[in-house]
Protein 1
Amino acid sequence: MLTSSLQLNDDHHVTNISVDDGLVDIEDTSSYQRDMYAMHVSEEPELYIGFGESASVQWAVAGLTCREAQQNTSRYACVSIHSTCLAVYSKDGYIGYRCKCMPGFKGNPYIRNGCKDIDDCKKQDICKGVCNNTIGTYYCTDCPGNTQYDTTTVQCTFTKKQNLLLGVGIGLSSGFGVLLLSSITIVLVRRWKRDIQKQLRRNHFRKNQGLLLEQLISSDENASDKTKIFTLEELEKATNNFDATRILGRGGHGMVYKGILSNQHVVAIKRSKNIDEGEISQFINEVAILSQINHRNIVKLFGCCLETEVPLLVYDFVPNGSLYEILHSNSSSGCFLLSWEDCLRIATEAAAALYYLHSAALVSVFHRDVKSSNILLDANYTAKVSDFGASRLVPIDQTHVVTNVQGTFGYLDPEYYHTGQLNEKSDVYSFGVVLVELLLRREPIFTTESGSKENLANYFLSEIKVRPIKEIVAAQICEEATEEEIKSVASLTEMCLRLRGEERPTMKEVEMTLQLLRTKRSNSCHASPENDEDMQPLQRTRADARC
């Protein structure tokens, strides 16, 4: 039954439609009634409507018998399966046909699949036993053994004797059954969780292109000794399930944990925050290549774990923290751990590492996040460039790539920031900021005396235009370095920080300039033994000085 307010004409409108009965209830809004209406829709048979009693009318497809209508399948109105055709008569005689769902079905016979099966078993008290519904009908069967039909509950129930025996059985076995069920449940749940975890790890391994990395390893005779695919179980054991006490640091690209492998080798395990799913294949290629990079001033990448949503990277462990921590952790007290000699050496070693990445490795590697916190110091305070989370490999025949801008504010190359074009000179700019940190002993974004934040690179470039360099650099630098050394490093720094990348030196030129300064300083120290004796206490301070 459908409720409607369809306007039939100016004096009548439809209030109710019964598809099953073929009736339409019409409300007469005029002072008179008409006996009959004929409606016509474009290219359709006429719809005949005649009044019945109580302001109800019946409808039919006019002018056709059921047999005639069924012969023209394209215009036959009863299109639903399980529908039938009915002849419609009025006081004037036969007027046409209408459609109705067959017994056991209900719905709209005028649309395809409109007649739906009725679940007769839902009818109240339809069977004195078990009701079985079938398409269009149903059948009844007797209640199964030891049960009888209960007119109160309208279903088959156990007899009183059976209920008593059942209750006794349940009472005797309930304790043992609950215990057994609990034990089985615990075992099954644990096994289910373990199986789920294994399946999840396998899925992550496939999604993270583990098969591709295995192919790259097997196809490269050298890679098998350098690249290792760790299981998640190995790294969980190495980090005590990634315990918070094992956290070494938190960076822009993830968190780093200290791990001890089964062979007692100490490693740093990096859990990255995210990686673009579309870049997984590129990431795997980079892992295979970066793990083959072997340079004394680059943190060694041993391998990775692909059994997590975001792959884990496993690096060599570097014990003495970062250059950033040593330069700035005690800056408020005005005392520093590293001597000027150490600073020159560390800068030269870091420059050599970047030069190697840019031009001496298998493919060019742009680090893209050079900063003092990514220059680590080993047990001998040798510089190790780390954190290739933002790095990009570049084919030999390309000088730049276009990428989404990544990096750290304070170190970010302005040209790269505005154009998105990454090249080796982007790393040169960031390295220039590290040189300013060594000279001024200030953070890349520092707080001025007035309390405002200022960019260290911009501050340095503006100050050297109006003040002597010795008034800008840290007091320790003035005490330990010669004026020529300070001016040389300041001049090199200014060139690294030029806005136009083409005006900046290459990392090879930077490394050569710093190495030349170290050579001159070394020759000067050998020429003046007393100076050498004076430098020894400064060099020793790097291992045991505390402020």
Note: The domain at 201-317 is CATH 3.30.200.20 (Phosphorylase Kinase; domain 1).
Protein 2
Amino acid sequence: MSTEHPLDDFRALLQRMPALDAQAGGAARQLFETQGAGESRLADVAALIAAVTGGRPSMSRPSLALFAGAHGIARHGISSRRMDATLATVAACGSGDAPVSHLCAANMIGLKVYDLALHLPTGDISTAPAMDERNAAATMAFGMEAIAGGADCVLAGSIASTGDETVATALFCAFHGGDPAEWLPEGDHALRRAELVSAALGTHRAVLGDPLAALAALGGREFAAMAGAILAARVEKVPVILDGVTALAAASALWAADPAAIAHCMLADAPAGAGQRAAERLGLVPLLGEGLAGGEGTAAALATATVRDALALHAGFAAQARAATHHHH
């Protein structure tokens, strides 16, 4: 890692992303078109996975990476959620008792929880950087491990923690523009949160034009680690299913650097409020309807079934096409 500009390694990766295989994607969609299903969401999924992997689309080893972090901005009392709830979820995932644990078992999905120094909150972004660039780079590198172990689809989600919505809002404002109040969900603390986001954007005005530097200054460890995971998957031609507002904010940082950086991403379900706006900006259409899942990775786990169905159709159509050409010869 270069000591001078620690994030340069990741900037270099963004320059070296493999091109998508438009031919493979087109061929996959063509198979659906011959069956009159070319405009379906399932065709979109099969075509995306074919284009990303450059081969016959498959998903036999999906893996869910759940990231958890703690935020300095939480000290302003802007949320009813407490850190013990986050710790309890991390523990439940570890013991196999979390809702997402059951769904991962049922859908044959690997599960790994990245507990990112929950005892040590990041800097309070309203007055200071969340992380320096060296820390952000190390955290992104740690997140890249999500693709280790041969996962052929990465599900990226987070465990809710106090302040994460406020941090996501700051990132959405930085990368998509607009007023903090427009991005924040209505609620008890909306006004105070908007003030804090405005303060954060003012404090870090100098780096807002540099997406990775902005991610370090405004984000949190789980945001940086997730960005690392998404980028690693892009470079290694592994499709990603994003789950939740934190994932959308992490994806937004990469998108701001280069929209092609999230060309391998799908969205699990329609997030509420700000997440929906962000998804539209990123051009992501959810795989599931709203309200089906309960966050914290559950939507991504459910969405793998939709992806598997798309790939099963593709395999069936491909077999039919092969049989037909064989028959003609």
Note: The chain has one domain: 8-17+59-313.
Protein 3
Amino acid sequence: MGVLHEDNNRKNNYMTLHRKKFETKLFGDPISFEVSELAGQANAAVIGRHGETVVLATVVMGKQNREGDFFPLTVDYEERYYAAGKILGSRFVRREGRPSDDATLSARLIDRTIRPLFDHRLRREVQVVVTILSYDGKHNPNTIALLSASTALAISDVPWGGPVAGVELNNVEEDEKRPYHAFFAGQEDFINMIELEGNEVDEEEVKILFDTAHKEVQRLVEFQNGIVKEIGKSKQEIIFTEPDPKTVEKVRNFITPRLAKAMKEKTLNELKTELEEHLEEDEEFAEKKPEIDP
């Protein structure tokens, strides 16, 4: 009885969490986003729902810069057997394995959409994780996953140039053939990610496809902006380390006239070696010994 009492307390605690729910439609189909104290240690977390397909999107940013001359963004798309109502038996490995090909492609779809909107100088680790909690077999999680990730980033204190929105369009005929399958993502003024597969389609039909997708994207971005105005956090102010202007200019002057030729006749590593030797000839730069990655 003690265990039952504890479980009831946990349920009651969840029900009393401060929650905020936002509802809109995706091509006339109801979707919703819920923000609560769930995943409280994340910078932001959003539960997205489309039909009975439910996802949890969390965003976390590190407090210190990581070493390396790149932006350490990680996007994980985590599928769960229980999301489809499957509880595997003992003959299956019960540990989490590597992601499926579909999960990898879905993660890349989100990554390609959100990555260009970060400042390329950011060196703090950012992790976006989308977990599929429930899949109803009807509503593809990709769209609600991207929208939930975007909403979480937008309301968080992580510096980011979103929100974005993505929509999926299929042209399914009565004989169940699929001339095309398309996914469009972007902001109010532009589309920054397109994934399209299918047979040849008339140009006018493609134009209609783009216009239809972008109008829905614009509406969904406006919807997210409304959420940000209501509950969004102030973005962290990060001081970026800028490279020495003299070094940048010297590298640019040396590399620019040689780069096109190097792409055809020699490797970039050889060009990098030449650049390092060139800088070492200058006493000022030899003392700095800059690390250069053209």
Note: The chain has two domains: 20-231, 245-288.
Protein 4
Amino acid sequence: MAEPATQSLTKLVNDDSDIVAWWSSKVECVSALTRRRLEGTLDSDAAQTAFRELERLSAGWDEIEPGESLRETAIRFLRVHPLRAADALQLAAAFVAADGRPSSLELVTLDDRLAEAARKEGFVVVDVAMA
């Protein structure tokens, strides 16, 4: 499924296949793909290809699972950044993955609000357009 950032994101994955993802990332991807298919902006063949690629990628990534510390961190992020709940959970998962040292981990996102909050928390946010 070709999107404006597809080529840059593919290059990022090919250059560094060590992916750490939040526990619900796969659910969010399935939601987005299914919504596009149901809206008619993604045909069935392309959707099946995208679902297979998601399965391949998710089989190789490390997942950060939910827990009390992650929830409390997400709540803190919601109180200081204009984030949606799902984005706060993603940012909290990255914080947990970085062992509380955000500058030790690069964060990849296409969401501007999440990117801004991540920068303010000390993460290195990858500029997908420059990847």
Note: The beta strands are 20-22, 62-64, 106-107, 124-125.
